[in-house]
Design goal:
By secondary structure, the protein is an alpha+beta fold. The chain contains three helices and 16 strands. Strand 15 and strand 16 form a beta hairpin. Helix 2 packs antiparallel against helix 3. The protein starts with a strand and ends with a helix.
């Protein structure tokens, strides 16, 4: 295994034999050379930026066989977290082979920011944007965390207690979870896109369902402190008080779209809706519609009786056919509503 600095990356598909290839500057003493390397695992790829260091190993290439074992090529495994930074770990002065040295690495470990050189901006490669104030997630013992370079993350966690306590083996954490649970071992999965809080370079933050831009929380026995945009009726347990498994999605806008079939919503106890002006469950809403239909039926019946009485008088007899026609239309409309409501009702 050797280490080297990324100098160039192939990001087009013009040559199918060069997909994801990178050019790595390696050093031995004061001399070095540039080698080609490919991702070791094609199912999980982390694309480096210019200036980051990678680990490179030697393995078989596509021409290798039991008779031709000498056919090899280089593969890169992962970027090296020289600066412990989540956005990038490029050291600008490591771009050229002649300048690779321990002095730059020592500076990184001493706390030098991962930002571009003070003298001149570092070229990370076309399209990459450097974030100079992005914080990363607070870890807890046993967590499995995947973080992107721009504030995306997936945490497979739980609900540790008393995390700020320090002992001889583990230092206390900076931040405690924003969720709670009576069972610390109960699993929780949090998917976050867009951090809502920053504490600065190489500082920890925690997921906040109310501040992060978009997130999905899959809980088991946790309380999640969501502040709902609108209140539900009193029969609904608020999200931040519910302690059974729930899936919570939160963003500025939610869209459920079906390309070829329908959108299905089914609730064992009900389907609840809350808007700025209304809050109800679907059972209650359709019950009210049914009651309106019943009232209209009563009115139509009464008007039919009135029209029958008027038809026996001389002066109003000419108006009866028009009234009767309108009553017939009303009755037909009510019949259609009745049929549709009966189909909806369990």
């Amino acid at each position: 295994m050797i280490f080297g600095t990324v100098e160039n990356i192939v990001l087009d598909d013009k040559d199918s034999e060069k997909l994801y290839k990178i050019y790595v500057a390696t050093t031995t003493g004061l001399t070095g050379n540039t080698i080609e390397a490919y991702p070791l695992d094609m199912t999980s790829k982390k694309i480096p930026v210019i200036g980051e260091q990678v680990m490179v190993v030697l393995g078989s290439n596509a021409d290798a066989s039991s008779q031709k074992r000498s056919s090899t090529r280089n593969y890169y495994i992962s970027t090296v977290g020289i600066q412990s930074n989540i956005n990038h770990n490029a050291l600008p002065k490591l771009n050229s082979k002649s300048s690779v040295g321990l002095g730059n690495i020592d500076g990184a470990f001493a706390g030098v920011s991962a930002q571009s050189s003070v003298d001149s901006p570092h070229d990370f490669g076309n399209g990459f944007v450097e974030l100079k104030n992005l914080s990363q997630l607070q870890p807890y013992l046993g967590d499995v965390i995947f973080e992107g370079r721009f504030g995306q993350s997936i945490r497979f966690g739980y609900t540790p207690r008393n995390t700020k306590r320090t002992n001889s083996l583990v230092s206390g954490t900076t931040i405690e979870p924003t969720w709670t649970s009576r069972k610390p071992e109960a699993p929780i999965t949090i998917i976050r896109n867009g951090a809502g809080v920053s504490r600065g370079y190489n500082k920890f933050v925690i997921e906040d369902i109310n501040k992060d831009e978009s997130s999905i929380w899959l809980s088991s026995q946790q309380k999640i402190g969501l502040k709902a945009s609108n209140k539900f009726n009193i029969s609904v347990t608020p999200v931040n008080q519910y302690t059974k498994p729930q899936l919570v999605l939160n963003s500025d806008r939610l869209i459920l779209n079906s390309k070829t079939d329908g959108v299905l919503l089914s609730g064992a106890k009900g389907v609840y809706i809350s808007t700025p002006n209304w809050k109800s469950d679907m059972d209650e809403m359709f019950t009210q519609i049914e009651q309106i239909k019943n009232q209209l039926t009563t009115i139509a019946t009464a008007l039919t009786a009135v029209a029958g009485g008027l038809s026996t008088t001389g002066r109003t007899a000419t108006a009866v056919p028009a009234v009767t026609t309108q009553i017939s239309k009303l009755s037909a409309g009510i019949a259609q509503i009745t049929t549709k409501l009966q189909l909806m009702k369990n």
